[in-house]
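Supplementary Methods. Inverse-folding protocol.

Structures were first reduced to a discrete structure-token string of length 111. This string, shown here, constituted the complete conditioning input.
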């Protein structure tokens, strides 16, 4: 993917792909070997686990915010509580998202 704006008008740019990126095949092969060796899974099973985990952490922040907003709404939470929860969730993710205000979170959900 090419460089893209995270949110229009706030000036954050994130690079994806390109020459500076690690070789995914080598990194994931090493990770698959490690998972298989430490869990007793077959290499094919370990590869599926690694693929699932990598996909989880590659989820774009906008998609994560929309998904979590919808899940919290289904549980009967109201927007002020939801946006405070999502703000804390993003700060605690293993691969940290940029710090977003509740206003920026609302813009992701409602445009």
């Amino acid at each position: 993917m090419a460089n893209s704006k995270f949110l229009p008008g706030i000036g954050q740019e994130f690079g994806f792909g390109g020459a500076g990126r690690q070789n995914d095949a080598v990194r994931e092969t090493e990770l698959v070997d490690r998972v298989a060796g430490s869990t007793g899974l077959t290499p094919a099973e370990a590869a599926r686990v690694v693929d699932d985990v990598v996909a989880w952490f590659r989820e774009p922040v906008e998609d994560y915010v929309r998904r979590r907003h919808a899940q919290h709404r289904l549980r009967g939470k109201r927007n002020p509580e939801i946006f405070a929860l999502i703000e804390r969730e993003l700060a605690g993710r293993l691969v940290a998202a940029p710090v977003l205000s509740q206003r920026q979170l609302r813009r992701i959900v409602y445009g």
